[in-house]
Amino acid sequence: MRRLFLLLLLTPLLFGKYNFKDPxxxxxxxxxIIMKLNxxxxxxxxxxxxxxxxxxxxxxxxxxxxxxxxxxxxMRVLKKDYDKHVLSRIKSLMEYDVEFIGCLxxxxxMGWKKKDFxxxxxYVQAGVVEVIERQAHGFIDATPY
Length: 145
Prior knowledge:
- It is a single chain.
- The chain is an alpha/beta fold and 145 residues long.
- Helix content is 41%, strand content 17%.
- The protein has a five-stranded parallel sheet, sandwiched between helices.
- The chain is globular, with a radius of gyration of 18 Å.
- The chain starts with a helix and ends with a strand.
């Protein structure tokens, strides 16, 4: 009984947790995911970041490209003075090559400058247009609720 339990416990670790559909994601042909960050509340930000962590755990290294596009109220989440725990999680995801892109239109509307935001962000003029263009190039919107 003990051996059976151990085998059932280790099987997902030995043979992978998920049966990927063809074409299977690879380093040369990764799955491409967009997450839209368009709300400023901490609960939403943590849920979105948690979803990204969960997705990253399922894919082999290099077989997933995740881009977070922030615009409107979501730009507030990327400011240096936002919740420290959330910012720590964002910086951690950046180390796993998750790209965070900010909207210059929102920044201009709010009177914010690049120096107000965390390091290593990319910027585009219009965040919503970036979402549209990424989807036109094969990215899938996987934004939770």
